[in-house]
Amino acid sequence: MSAVGLVGVSKVFRDGAVAVDDVTLDIADGEVMVLLGPSGCGKSTLLRMIAGLEPVTSGEVWLYGEYANDLPPSERQISMVFQDYALYPHMTVRGNVSFPLKVRGLPGEEIEDRVGAIAHQLGIAELLDRPPRKLSGGQRQRVAMGRAIVREPSLFLMDEPLSNLDSGLRSELRAEISSMVRKMGVTTIYVTHDQVEALTMADRVAILRKGVLQDVGTPDQVYSQPATMYVAAFLGAPRMNLVRAYVHVMLESHVELHLGEQALAVPWLDPRARLLAHYHGDRIVVGVRAEALWPLNSEPDGAQLRGRVRFLEHLGHESVAYVDIGAEAVIDDAAEPGRHHEPRADLAVRLPAYPSLVMGQALAVGVALDQLHFFDPKGKRIDFRRR
Ligand SMILES: Nc1ncnc2c1ncn2[C@@H]1O[C@H](COP(=O)(O)OP(=O)(O)O)[C@@H](O)[C@H]1O
Ligand SMILES: [Mg+2]
Questions:
Q1: Residue 120: exposed, middle, or buried by beta-carbon count in 10 A (0-12, 13-18, 19+)?
Q2: Across-strand partners of 349?
Q3: Which residue lies with its CA nearest to atom 21 of ligand 1?
Q4: Residues with CB under 6 A from ligand 1
């Protein structure tokens, strides 16, 4: 039985705004599911409908096999942590963490034991007698998590709990949350707009765009087999290169992909060639991550693209060359609002730190054909198979 079942769940606000659009999703018992997407895509609204804080407009919410559309929040055995901590200011840390247990009327000794254990696990045992105003942001968020988890909920919901913290603390806390919820085995739904957070914490990631579920899978699945162009562009840094390509079938040898003046050949031995052949005479989108590209020094065999270095980015441990290959880039408008023109495609190529390259220099780039991503004109993956 799944812990959470969403069947065609939608939320339309009174002003007509569609915040969540026909989402169907199953979350297994004990699973850590991360809801990922940019600001405004409906993550919080979806979470609030699961918590019962927001009625669904249509569709069904199931919790542990029980139809839950009309179940009040208090009967859902859910704990929730928000971005802004929301601690009781007039209570100490101990008061905050023990509060949900006192409300339930648990005996004092048991409360003491459970609060002590949680405080120890979260590294806040020394802070138990302090008021919230004498805590740092990271400590406050630990306390908020302690208060939420001490009730031993069947479902733990977190809405961007780390986004008010600086980056060092964020990666420390995300590792702690990850290990804590797994140790406790509690089903967790974690909302974030940060793809690194999603990929590092999740058992599975669900990616939302404008209220529509784009893809669901393990971090490896959504990264290496993104279901849509949107997901492909959202995950990974540097951003995946998306390049317009014309498809031309050469019956005797291969399917040719024309990227501007250049071409890549997908041989018939490649199982994707037959799928690509459906688009003969048409345009598709080829996605290339930096890790599928490498600079060529000698005469190559195998697929390659040539271009000029347009700029170099030095990151200390490596450098990234952006190579203009004279092809047309495809910009996903939801991923980069405000960009309407279609600029030239600059392939991001990873290089050793501070390479002896200059701007404008010609560079040949090797291409790992098997790591290319192909999307149809609507942005759907051409060779998608999952679920
Ligand atoms: N109470 C509300 N009334 C009207 N529109 C809302 C309300 N709450 C959220 N929205 C809209 O619904 C969309 C999704 O919001 P939200 O779920 O908060 O997104 P996210 O958490 O992903 O940033 C946004 O366009 C937002 O403006
Ligand atoms: Mg939100």
A1: exposed
A2: 321
A3: 44
A4: 13, 15, 17, 19, 37, 39-45
> Tokens in use for 72?
């009040």
CA of 5 relative to ligand 1 center, distance in Å: 22
Residue nearest to atom 17 of ligand 1 (CA): 42
CB hemisphere CA count around 122 (13 angstroms):
29
| Tens digits of residue pLDDT in 85-144 | 789 999 999 999 999 999 989 999 999 999 999 999 888 999 999 999 999 988 998 999
* DSSP track, 212-252: EEEEEE-HHHHHHS-SBHHHHHHSSSSPPEEEEEEEEEETT
Measured from the alpha carbon of residue 163, the closest ligand is: 2
Residue owning the nearest CA to atom 24 of ligand 1? 40
DSSP character for 193? S
Domain extents in the chain: 2-226, 241-375
Residue-level pLDDT at 356: 87
- CA quadruple 114, 116, 117, 122: dihedral, nearest 10: 120
> Any idea which fold 241-375 has?
OB fold (Dihydrolipoamide Acetyltransferase, E2P) (2.40.50)
pTM of the model: 0.92
Instruction: Please provide the CATH number assigned to the domain covering 2-226.
Output: 3.40.50.300
Specify the DSSP element, H or E, that contains 295. strand 293-295
CB 311 within 8 A of CB 322: yes
* pLDDT tens figures, 243-263: 999 999 999 889 999 999 999
